[in-house]
Design the sequence.
């Protein structure tokens, strides 16, 4: 009989429970989006660092059992570059979710959530994600079977570069075969000089007001909660982030990045190591706070949080 292959055990992330986690199954990506936090200098993100499928399945199972992880978001890089692995690994978790750029098709995940990133109408999206990307995503979405049990959401990450396209975007995608459109706002790095963020958060407030108006105009398409958007305004946002994440409920999520030599490494938060919490626009941070603190839902289990997060708004409550 052939000897059983010994698979490496995961990195030790301490003893605490993490009901929610995310995993970068690969650092490889077919796109180079201008706003992407994954490829910032301070993050573990080298494409050569790989973990083979059997080891990853073993380590995810071990981490699930050790930390009581219920909900896992599959991310990258582009996770669907490792489609077979991802589809196998989703079976390990009660609440799986995938966030993807849709280049390798829209995965079928009955009972689960697939978030498809698209950052505005064609011209703006393609200036961020690359030429031809909007049409490619549109084609992939058109192919999907709406009755396959998967919740598919479009997600626009709003920056100062594409905010002018929010209204056109919703008008263009309102009749696409998806379950809704979600918005999240740019998460900058410290001393961010990219021009993608808002120096004065009162300028970001104007964007949030426009999102509230969009929600009112398209209540069944736009899945954002008005109550959550209100918490993102400049007069309240720090209550839910803190200077350095001390008020952030997403710090209870375990971020598994692919680190040196292909072992899992955790970063400061889901958005990596170099983040400016005082300007964090992650919708999920505020949505979790809205459900837990404002609505008092103690056991609110945000289905997806963070980058693929916004789909939680597709769920009742
Ligand atoms: C990092 S990508 C990984 C998955 C996949 N490659 C994709 O693009 O969907 C996950 C999500 O994070 C968003 N994102 C990237 N950089 C961001 C930033 N600086 N702030 C907020 N969201 C960001 C992307 O737009 C995307 O919706
Ligand atoms: S946002 Fe997604 S598709 Fe774009 S570069 Fe980052 S990982 Fe790749
Ligand atoms: S998710 Fe939380 S910890 Fe990360 S940047 Fe936003 S506020 Fe800071």
Sequence:
């Amino acid at each position: 009989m052939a000897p059983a292959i010994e698979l490496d055990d995961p990195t030790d992330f301490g003893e605490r429970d993490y009901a929610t986690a995310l995993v970068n199954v690969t650092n490889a990506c077919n796109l180079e989006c201008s706003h992407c936090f994954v490829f910032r200098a301070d993050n573990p993100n080298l494409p050569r660092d790989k973990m083979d499928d059997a080891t990853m399945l073993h380590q995810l199972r071990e981490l699930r059992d050790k930390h009581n992880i219920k909900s896992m978001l599959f991310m990258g890089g582009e996770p669907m570059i490792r489609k077979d692995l991802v589809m196998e690994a989703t079976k390990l978790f009660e609440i799986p979710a995938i966030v993807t750029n849709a280049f390798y098709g829209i995965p079928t995940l009955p009972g689960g959530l697939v978030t498809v990133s698209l950052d505005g109408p064609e011209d703006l999206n393609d200036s961020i994600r690359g030429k031809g990307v909007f049409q490619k995503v549109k084609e992939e979405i058109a192919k999907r079977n709406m009755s396959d049990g998967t919740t598919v959401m479009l997600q626009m990450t709003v920056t100062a570069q594409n905010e002018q396209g929010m209204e056109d975007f919703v008008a263009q995608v309102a009749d696409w075969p998806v379950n809704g459109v979600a918005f999240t706002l740019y998460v900058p790095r410290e001393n961010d000089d990219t021009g993608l963020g808002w120096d004065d958060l009162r300028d970001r407030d104007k964007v949030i007001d426009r999102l509230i108006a969009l929600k009112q105009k398209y209540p069944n398409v736009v899945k954002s909660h008005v109550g959550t958007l209100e918490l993102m305004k400049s007069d309240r946002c720090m209550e839910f982030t803190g200077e350095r994440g001390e008020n952030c409920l997403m710090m209870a999520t375990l971020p598994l990045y692919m680190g040196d030599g292909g072992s899992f490494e955790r970063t400061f938060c889901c958005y990596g190591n170099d983040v400016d919490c005082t300007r964090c626009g992650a919708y999920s941070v505020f949505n979790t706070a809205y459900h837990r603190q404002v609505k008092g839902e103690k056991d609110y289990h945000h289905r997806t949080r963070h980058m693929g997060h916004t789909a939680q708004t597709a769920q009742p409550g």
